[in-house]
Amino acid sequence: MTHRRTHALIWIWTLFVVAVVYLPIACGALASFNKSRYFGFPVKAYATDWWEKTLDSIEIGMIVRNSILIALLVTVLSVLIATFGALAFARYDWKGRRLYQKLIMLPIFFPQPVLGLAMLLGFSAVGIQTSWMTAVFAHLVWVVPVVTLVIAIQVYGFDPSLEEAAIDLGCSRLQVLREVTLPLLWPGIWSGMLFAFLLSWSNFPLSLYTAGADSTIPKWLYAKMVAGYTPMVPALGTMATLGAAALLLTGGLVGILVRRRTAS
Amino acid sequence: MFPTMTAPTAPARRPILQLVGVRKSFGGFHAVQGIDLDVREGEFLTIVGPSGSGKTTLLRMLAGMDSPSEGNITLHGERINDVPPNKRPTCLVFQSLALFPHKSVGENIAFPLKVKGVDAAARKARALELMAIVRLPETYHDKNVMKCSGGERQRVALARALAYDPEVLFFDEPLSAIDYKLKKTLEKELKDLHRETGKTFIYITHSLEEAMVMSDRIGVMRAGKLVQVGTPEEIYGAPVDRFVCEFVGEVNSIEVTRGADGGWSGVDVSGAFKVQPPQGIAEAGAPDRAFIVIRPEYMRVLGPGESADNRVEGVVYNEYSLGSRIQYQVRVNARDGGEKVMLVELSRARALPAGAEPRVTLGWDATDAFTLRG
C-alpha cells in the first residue's frame, strides 16, 4: 500500500517538474500560432500564417545562416582545441598543469554579459571591427572550457597503458592517435561537439556585445521583443528550440548506434 | 613473412641483453641502484621482489618506456638506453594487459601487423594461427575483447605480444589478478610457450611461487638492488642473506655467537649449536655473530631414542593444515625469559597423533640448516 502511494507521489512530482519546464515552451509555440499580430491569451484564432512568414523572411534566413555558421565554426574549433586541451588537462603530467586546470575553468564562471562587454572593449582597443567572426571568438572563450571539461571526463576513464602498449607494439605517435587515443575519446568528443553547437546556438549575451552589426537568432529575438513584436518571435523561438532538440536526439541516436556496432 | 615457431635446438647461452651499472632516480628517489645483469638468449628469467623494490622500474627501462639515469643497457652488444619502445625488438605484457577495448579479439592480436601495414587477409590468418597457439577457440576472432574472461584476456594479450614477433618478451605481473587455479594453468602454459617459441622471457612478480614454477633463473631484488641471481634451486638452497632466505619462504632463525673456544651458542635461544660455518667468517679468531636458518620442512620432532645434531625443547600450541602437510607452531623458551615461535612442517603420514603430549623435542642436523652472516 505504502509502496503504491510512494509510486504515485513520484509520478505526480515528475509530471509537475516536466510541466514547469515545458509549459512555457508550449506557450511560446501557442503564441506563434496566433492569427492576430498581438500577443494575448487565450488565443482566439489559430493560424500558421506567422510560421509561413517566418520561413519566407529573407532577414530571418540570414540570421539563421549566421547562427548556424557561428555554431559550426565554434563546434569545429572548440573540439580541436579542447581535445588536445583535455589531454593536457587530464592525461599528461607537466609543470603548471594544476594552474592550467584552474585557469581554463574560470571563463565558465564569469558573468557572460561582463565577459561580452570586456571582449567588446578589448576588440575596440586593438581596433578590430566586431562582426560574426568576433562573435565566434567570444563564443570560443566560453565554450572551449566547457568542451574541455566534457572531453577530460572521457580522458580520465582511459587507461594510459593503452597508449604505451600501442607504442610498444610498433606505433608511431600519429598511429597511436589514430588507432587508440581518438577512437577511445570519440564518445567524449561527440558529446563535446553537441555541447559546443548548442551552447553557441543559444548564446545571447556574448553575441549581443561582440557580433557587431551581424545578428543571431537569440539577438534578433531580443531586439524584436524590445521593439517590433510580431508572432514571428515565438515562431522562430520555437523553431530554434525544435532544431536544438532534433540535433540532440540525432546526436544521442548516433552515439547509441555507434556503440552498438562496436559492441557486437 | 613470418618466422615459423620451431622448438629451439639447445638454446644458445650467449647474452642477449646486458645491463651494466644501471641506475634510475626520480628526483631524490633512487628506484634502481646499480644493476649488473646478463640475460641469456632464450632463457626464462624472473625478477622477484616485494613491492617498491624497483622491479617495475627496471622492466620499464628494459622495455624502453624509461631510460636509465646512469649505466648501459645493450641488446646484442648495441647500446639501447634511449631507443624508444617502437624501435626495439621487445614487447611488454602489461599488468593491466592494456587490451584495446574498442577492438575485437582478432583485431587486438593483429594490431602489430596492422601497424606494420600487413594486409587484412594475412592479418586474419596470422591472428587465427596465434589464437591456436594460445588455445583460444577460432570463434573468438570477432568477439568483443571486453566480453572475454580474465584467463581469455591473458591469452589475447600474449598472442598480441607474439604477433609483434619480439626477440624478448617482458611480463609485468600479468597473473596477479587471476584466481589460484587458473593461475597454475596459465603458469604452465606460459612455460610451455617459452619452450615452444624459444624466445627470451623476462618476467616480473612479487610471488616467489610463480617464479619457482616457471623460471630458468631467478633474480631477487630488494631496495633497487639485485641481491641474488640464480636457478630456483640455488635461490632456495643457498640464499645469500636473510632477506632472500625469508623471501623464499617461512623460516626458523636462531641468532648465534661464536665463543673463544670456537663453539657456537644461541643468543635468543639458549644452548650450544653445531653449525656449518658461514662463508666469509674466519675459522678462528674473534667471536662473531651469525644466524642459523632452518626451513620448517627440515625440522624434525624427535621421538625417544632419536638423535640429531641440535635439539630444542618446546610446546606445540597451534597447528595448520597446508593440504598435504601440516604446520605446527611450537613455543620454545627464549633466553631473555620470553618465548620464541618455531615452525615445523610434517607430512600427513608423520603427523603428531591427536591428543599427543604437547611437549616435544625439535631437532635438526647441521647439514639441514644454513648459516648466514649476522
Automatic annotation (TrEMBL), chain A:
One Pfam assignment: BPD_transp_1
Protein name: Spermidine/putrescine transport system permease protein
Transmembrane spans: 12-33, 68-92, 104-128, 140-159, 180-201, 235-258
Annotated keywords: Cell membrane, Membrane, Transmembrane, Transmembrane helix, Transport
Family label: Belongs to the binding-protein-dependent transport system permease family. CysTW subfamily.
Organism: Ancylobacter amanitiformis
Membrane topology, from the record: Multi-pass membrane protein
Domain ABC transmembrane type-1 positions: 64-251
InterPro entries assigned: Bact_Polyamine_Transport, MetI-like, MetI-like_sf
Highest taxon, organism lineage: Bacteria
Subcellular locations according to the entry: Cell membrane
Automatic annotation (TrEMBL), chain B:
Pfam families for this protein: ABC_tran, TOBE_2
GO molecular function, one term: ATP binding
Keywords per UniProt: ATP-binding, Nucleotide-binding, Transport
Keyword ATP-binding: yes
Residues annotated as signal peptide: none
Segments traversing the membrane: none
Family annotation (InterPro entries): AAA+_ATPase (IPR003593), ABC_SmlMolc_Importer (IPR050093), ABC_transporter-like_ATP-bd (IPR003439), ABC_transporter-like_CS (IPR017871), Mo/tungstate-bd_C_term_dom (IPR008995), P-loop_NTPase (IPR027417), Transp-assoc_OB_typ2 (IPR013611)
Residues annotated as domain ABC transporter: 17-248
Lineage top rank: taxon: Bacteria
Family membership: Belongs to the ABC transporter superfamily.
Alphabetized PANTHER family for the sequence: SPERMIDINE/PUTRESCINE IMPORT ATP-BINDING PROTEIN POTA, SPERMIDINE_PUTRESCINE IMPORT ATP-BINDING PROTEIN POTA
This protein's name: Spermidine/putrescine transport system ATP-binding protein
Organism the protein comes from: Ancylobacter amanitiformis
